[in-house]
Amino acid sequence: MKDFDFYIVPTPIGNLGDITLRAIEVLKSVDLIACEDSRVTQKLLNHFDIKTKCISYHKYNENERINEILSVLKSGKRMALVSDAGTPLICDPGCVIVKELRKHGFSITSLPGANAVITLLSQVSREDESFSFVGFLPKTQQKIEEIATQYKYQDFVFYDSPNRIIKTLEYIQNVRPDAKVAFGRELTKVFEEVVVDKIYKVILHLQSNISKGEFVCMIFRDEKPEEITGMDDKIKLLQDKGFSAKDISVILSELYGINKNKIYKITVSKQL
């Protein structure tokens, strides 16, 4: 296996058994681990009998740590970066140091591993594969409502805390009263919960079932009014040109931002 100067290592989002064998190997073999909270990371290291020394690296000291990390790597040592849970640089620190390391020519690699967004989406049925991830939403009502409106016709995913999630959904409900929601909390843990329902039902559920643990939430896209109507002439024109139903669905989806599966169904129905 090729050696790199710097490893980005995902850690479990809940269940410690989700760590990969390679992640354990890397964390044991490097000379130093940069972590958000040494108390959190040390529990993981102790569990897998990893003796590697840690230094703190979080959003409040990213710039301060640059020279120290560069010095360590210039001396020929290797390092790993972890966050408290999940994948570094995905709503977690790491962007600053990675930019600097690439600027100075150090070799970097990322290991595959745990991520709350993918863990949720892999068990939620969606119209297609496209979605937008917006990280943690702003705190103000106006900004949240603006984002919910901006992504009205696209699935969007965000993180939120248990003390904010109900208020966040209420703000979204103000501008998207019929929205459909999926959320996951305590993912991979004993009390994992995934709920998919109308936004008002999700709010009612959470009002009596709030708990600790970060939320990952998806707001499903609304159907565009023109999705059902206005496509007949365009479909017929492409059919007359000899395009297949699959090609037509792809073309019109790209041109008009309409769900290709729905266009495909309309096209096939007209061929029957």
Major sheet: 5 strands, parallel
**Low-confidence region ranges:** none
Distance between the termini: 56 Å
Count of individual helical segments: 11
Q: What string, H for helix and E for strand, traces the elements in order?
A: EHEHEHEHEHEHEHEEHEHHH
Rg (CA only): 23 Å
CATH superfamily of the largest domain: Tetrapyrrole methylase, N-terminal domain
The total strand number stands at 10
The total domain count is: 3
- CATH class annotation of the largest domain: Alpha Beta
Describe this structure in words.
By secondary structure, the protein is of the alpha/beta class. The chain folds into 3 domains: 6-114, Tetrapyrrole methylase, N-terminal domain (Cobalt-precorrin-4 Transmethylase, domain 1, 3-Layer(aba) Sandwich), CATH 3.40.1010.10; 117-219, 2-Layer Sandwich (Methyltransferase, Cobalt-precorrin-4 Transmethylase, Domain 2); 225-271. Helices cover 41% and strands 16% of the residues. The strands form 2 sheets. The protein has a 5-stranded parallel β-sheet, with helices on both faces. Strands 6-7-10-8-9 form a 5-stranded mixed β-sheet. Strand 6, helix 6 and strand 7 (156-160) form a beta-alpha-beta unit. Helix 6 (141-150) packs across helix 7. The longest helix is centred in the first third of the chain and has 13 residues, at 62-74. The mean pLDDT is 92.
